[in-house]
Amino acid sequence: MPVGLIYETLNSLKKLSPDFISVTYGAGGGKNNVETLRIASAIKNDYGLESVFHLPCIGLTKGEVLQKLSELKSVGIENILALRGDIPEGFTSAGDFRHASDLISFIKENGDFNIIAACYTEGHIEATDIAEDIRNLKIKVDAGADQLITQLFFDNDYFYSFMDRCLSADIHLPVEAGIMPVVNKKQIERMATLCGATVPKKFVTMMERYENNPAAMRDAGIAYAVDQIVDLIAQGVSGIHLYTMNNPYIAGKIYEAVHNLIV
């Protein structure tokens, strides 16, 4: 997305007064992710909102991470989403960090940041089973994570089962539920495949019915997301992380609908 459109998105999102806006690594297409830092800084210092900086560690050295931490500190950014990151095909240099837990531990030792870790309601696709996944999550928590954000999911029952597993593993951090509204059938299918999310039958039916009608698909996706969010709030979820994909219209409509239902 062009940088100018990103700032238009920020202008719209500010009106919703979110707890934070996250910035993915490489946002704006900036070379060496310079633009990512600039956008994250603008969120905090120009828009007056908390900014969460995504930091994937694959391929990075400890020196490079220390430099990044210094840059973040210099512009007042206090929140980092610490990730391993996707391993590119043919990639041979893993850098100094093999896992997100290694990065979390390093940040904890070398900075004063609020560290957020990713989690997966149905288990990470590389985990052999659910038990291994929750053990790996516990390692992240013990390494120093302060809160968790789930990858996207479309069936709240998976989230509730995940929360039960967290309690059983003595994980008591706040967990924000990641919700991605459907606006494009292929995009959602790709994202669901990448993170191992089950797509319920009623969700598939909705996508198949409206895939050739973009406006109807958007509105149906908003309605589905609102239904998920209202149920999560009723069950006492710690927070909702809305994957807006730089679409402030969808974020605004969901905010409006949820606000009207729960107030």
Multimerization status = single chain
Elements, N to C (H/E): HEHEHEHEHEHEHHHEH
Instruction: State the strand order across the main sheet.
Output: 1-2-3-4-5-6-7
Structural class: alpha/beta
Query: Nearest-angstrom radius of gyration?
Result: 18 Å
Low-confidence stretches: 27-31
> What level of helicity do the residues show?
40-55%
Largest sheet: 7 strands, parallel
β-strand percent reads: 5-15%
* Continuous helix count: 10
Task: Using the alpha-carbon principal axes, give the shape.
Answer: globular
What is the residue-averaged pLDDT?
Answer: 91
- Ends distance: 35 Å
Number of strands: 7
Characterize the structure shown.
- This protein is α/β, with parallel strands linked by helices.
- Helices cover about 50% and strands about 15% of the residues.
- The chain is built from ten helices and seven strands.
- It has helices at about 5-15, 35-45, 60-75, 100-110, 130-145, 155-170, 185-195, 200-210, 215-235, 250-260; strands at about 20-25, 50-55, 80-85, 115-120, 145-150, 175-180, 240.
- Strands 1-2-3-4-5-6-7 form a seven-stranded parallel β-sheet.
- Helix 5 links the parallel strand 4 and strand 5.
- Helix 1 (about 5-15) runs parallel beside helix 10, helix 8 runs antiparallel to helix 9 and helix 9 crosses helix 10 (about 250-260).
- The radius of gyration is 18 Å and the shape is globular.
- It starts with a helix and ends with a helix.
- Mean pLDDT is about 90; it is low at about 25-30.
Topology:
Blueprint: H1 3-14, E1 21-23, H2 34-45, E2 51-56, H3 62-74, E3 79-83, H4 100-110, E4 114-119, H5 130-143, E5 147-152, H6 156-168, E6 175-179, H7 185-195, H8 201-210, H9 214-234, E7 239-242, H10 248-262
Parallel strand pairs: 1-2, 2-3, 3-4, 4-5, 5-6, 6-7
Helix pairs in contact: 1-10, 4-5, 8-9, 9-10
